[in-house]
């Protein structure tokens, strides 16, 4: 599955500085890069997709302001964006059913914010069958814990490659933020830290009044991308031309340069080879010992 040219598949300040953020740090952090990611799939779906966007702190701040303004527009007037609720006209979108013009204007407005303020988009997917097949041969569970952690680490690696190799940022100037509700948080932290990258940060995408957290619009955009990519795979169009995607996914694929990838058997084999990982000991059935 691929998108466009790079294809293969103040809370912004808090995301970088945690509770240490102070106004005097603004100039220093302005050059930092943050990637925001969310997962779709798992549980009832035979694949996990992690997707999201990367940008600078300054652009994320403007993204945040514009996204919230769109949510508050009189014609929309919703507290957050959540793709599953939007798609099925439930929750905050319960009275949107059948109003296609309103829905189209809303989606186009949100995509416009992504176009104006995001630098790149990354995604990685792993099907259950690939994970299980390769986990029988290689110690994937011991190394990553779950497919989400492997896909998440892949997105972290892409973010750092974009920042460090292509744009000369230093490693400590790059941060990755994930939706706090995704399962496998501990496994992802370990996988990222073992790859010698800064530990991922976790925030809620939607507002959490009990935590006095307003929600993170950048994670809502990540939810948008991961949901659309999941639907493309489930519909059997993962290898189709962009023109055959849903219109909303076509627009996302052209919004910013993207790298949307999906692990195949050969990708796992290559990953294990690069890490000098030994395969599991063989059993009579050829599976995991």
Quick take:
The protein is an alpha/beta fold. 46% of the residues lie in helices and 14% in strands.
* Neighbour order of strands in the largest sheet: 5-4-1-2-3-6
Count of helical stretches: 12
Calculate the mean pLDDT score and round it: 88
Classification by helices and strands = alpha/beta
Radius of gyration: 19 Å
Strand % is 5-15%
Which parts are unreliable, with pLDDT below 50 for 5 consecutive residues or more?
Answer: 2-29
Please state the overall shape, judged from the principal axes of the Cα atoms. Answer: globular
Instruction: Please report the total strand number as a whole number.
Output: 6
Q: What separation lies between the terminal Cα atoms?
A: 34 Å
SSE series? HHEEHHHEHHHEHEHHEH
Helix content range: 40-55%
* Largest sheet geometry: 6 strands, mixed
